[in-house]
Write a structure and sequence with these properties.
- The protein is of the alpha/beta class.
- The chain has 2 domains: about 150 residues, Quinone Oxidoreductase, Chain A, domain 1 (Alpha-Beta Complex); about 140 residues, 3-Layer(aba) Sandwich (Rossmann fold).
- About 35% of the residues lie in helices and about 25% in strands.
- The protein contains 11 helices and 14 strands.
- The strands form 3 sheets. The protein has a 6-stranded parallel sheet with strand order 11-10-9-12-13-14, with helices on both faces. The chain has a 5-stranded antiparallel sheet with strand order 7-3-5-6-8. Strands 2-1-4 form a 3-stranded antiparallel sheet.
- Helix 8 links the parallel strand 10 and strand 11.
- Helix 2 packs across helix 3, helix 3 crosses helix 4 and helix 6 packs across helix 7.
- The longest helix has 15 residues.
- It is elongated.
Amino acid sequence: MMRQVFLQKGTVTLKNVTVPLLDDNSILVVVHYSFVSSGTEGATLAASARSLVERFVSNVETYSHKVASTVKEHGIAVTLALIKEKSQQVMPLGYSCSGQVIATGKNIQKFRVGDFVACAGAGLANHAEVVSIPQNLAVKITDSTWLKQASLTTIGAIAMQGVRRANLTLGERVCVVGLGLIGQLTIQLAKLAGCHVIGIDIQESRLSLAKELGASNTFNASSPQVIQDIDYVTEHYGVDATIITAASSYGAILQQAMTMTRRKGRVVLVGDVKIDFDRDPFYSKEIDLLISCSYGRAL
């Protein structure tokens, strides 16, 4: 038996569960450090605490369509049972951790028992004493003194994938919207890529940190002049790429990104932002809208 953290109805609980099974293409890891994401897991916690009625009211169109489709296909009794099951669902928490390999599947060649590794994967790299991780979602750590820092590897990989999707080149202007942990890492990666980096957020402390980490300019998103400010620092050209690492239930962030990005530029959506924007700037400027959601190569 082992201990693992779960979420149920807005409450975080610690449960005793069986050690996960090991398959042929996975490794079993005893966890030394498990990273808690204040952004992603905080949002998950808040959403779980809301009642089904609150969630339905907040997005009537989407939920009405889902319920109607389920009733049509399976009937009212099955639909009610599914709703009840959903409301009582227990969800494992965690998606980034580090530790030591204690067992390997028979097809594993690049890991051995005793290796220190960083692990990724929602529902896999859980807040638990032991985790079972597919080999493509783990990476070896050569220096065990960095185990604590390595537990953030997933976050760094998410930021790196966003930068890769933006396809940045030397000297380009890139704007990072949302300066939480992933945003701050994105700022540094874009700077290392030789770009002129602009940071946008609503918190002054995050804007100050972004400046320290290499942002050439920072602007408060709540300012009514933010679009004009970016227009000015880009010499009325617009940024070549906008990487959105913010989280918002409103489409205004995406709309703002379309406005500040130059013609034939790129907008990369990394954060959890509602996709709702006016078609005109997206269409007339021929902007590429890209989604970035992965951090590990396929098997």
